[in-house]
Amino acid sequence: DAEITQSPRHKITETGRQVTLACHQTWNHNNMFWYRQDLGHGLRLIHYSYGVQDTNKGEVSDGYSVSRSNTEDLPLTLESAASSQTSVYFCASSEDLTAGNTIYFGEGSWLTVV
Amino acid sequence: DAKTTQPPSMDCAEGRAANLPCNHSTISGNEYVYWYRQIHSQGPQYIIHGLKNNETNEMASLIITEDRKSSTLILPHATLRDTAVYYCIAHYNFNKFYFGSGTKLNVKP
Prior knowledge:
Number of helices of chain B: 0
Distance between the termini of chain A: 37 Å
Strand order of the largest sheet of chain B: 1-9-8-3-4
Largest sheet of chain B: 5 strands, mixed
Shape of chain B: globular
Low-confidence stretches of chain A: none
Structural class of chain B: mainly beta
Largest sheet of chain A: 7 strands, mixed
Mean pLDDT of chain A: 92
Oligomer: heterodimer
């Protein structure tokens, strides 16, 4: 079955280090997204991509970057990890952006910055 | 996306129908109503979506009022495994797919 996978599922890193979270989907979806979820809050959009070589900033993009070199992968990089970036990160994908289509989420990556 | 309002928590007895309300009074004509749920420590799971008509699938039913200002998600026979946070989203495109705080559904034996 097609799926979306994230790695690592859990990571502890130190302040100032660069961290990359991987996201891989096998649906061949053009559209991919990264969200973060903080305790007691809903999901907030970090970055998104409509296709290869396309990236866009979301609501909370400061301190994060993404790159899209192929359809299947959208890695999220924290350039210099900060304690405020301790969170759960969810990758998602969608076949089509038009209204009425469905977005599918990965299982999440728990990141702790100490 | 239109703002949605949901109660922070609800209780439901196991085996009974769970009816989760959502207000989206500013929804526009091209915005769909989506429902997702998130079971502890898991990624959000798609449940159902609709535009105007009521919808039903193997998981749930979605009832949208005629004026589209509110909707209700119905889980017909709630089980303990349905305990989760349920999110109602009024949405047009995914670059503004905003998850609010949701409703914590507690299914009790």
